[in-house]
Design goal:
Number of domains: 2
Strand content: over 45%
Shape: rod-shaped
Mean pLDDT: 89
Helix content: under 10%
CATH class of the largest domain: Mainly Beta
Distance between the termini: 38 Å
């Protein structure tokens, strides 16, 4: 999320394209097309973030910037040239890095929270402990918040480290337990 996605539509025979159409496969979703004989480009239900990467004459790649969770889904590129009609299918999966925090609470528990990630982040502790527990909250937009609790009431460790692992980012947060 927030970055650029480029979906390339190959021109297999390297002959001039007569028609290129990009569609998002859902009802009333984006349609972007170019017809060369009229030098005509059309947009229907496309947000401003969905455009041609270059000129559709030279390269009919689709550019999505910035990518948003709502852009996730299936896309189709249809091309027509003197050799025939061609269909290319793409699946766009959007990942969202979580916001990570590590805080103590009043009952001598360290709380490591990975908020609004997609997919859910994995949380682990150093040192490993049998005194940790975890909760998960699913949000309507498809993101997940994972919260892990590390109790140190009877611990002799001077510090604890929360490791958050996610496809978009890995983070390590350290908390001093001597305070």
């Amino acid at each position: 999320a927030g970055h650029e996605a480029v979906l390339s539509c190959p021109n297999i025979f390297k002959v001039p394209l007569l028609l290129v159409t990009w569609k998002r496969n859902c009802s009333s979703c984006c349609l972007l097309s170019y017809r060369s004989d009229r030098n005509e480009t059309r947009r229907l239900n496309c947000s401003e973030s969905i455009t041609w990467k270059y000129s559709p004459v030279s390269d009919p790649a689709l550019r999505i910037y910035p990518v948003d969770l709502r852009d996730e889904g299936y896309y189709t590129c249809d091309t027509v040239n003197s050799e025939g009609n061609f269909h290319f299918f793409f699946s766009l999966t959007v990942i969202v890095p979580p916001t990570v925090t590590l805080t103590p609470d009043e009952s001598r528990v360290a709380v490591c929270q990975a908020s609004a990630g997609k997919p859910a982040a994995d949380i682990s502790w150093i040192p490993a402990s049998n005194h940790s527990s975890e909760e998960e909250f699913h949000h309507p937009n498809g993101t997940v918040t994972r919260v892990s609790y590390f109790g140190w009431a009877n611990s002799s460790f001077p510090s604890v480290t929360c490791l958050v692992t996610h496809p978009a980012t890995n983070q390590t947060l350290l908390m001093d337990l001597t305070c």
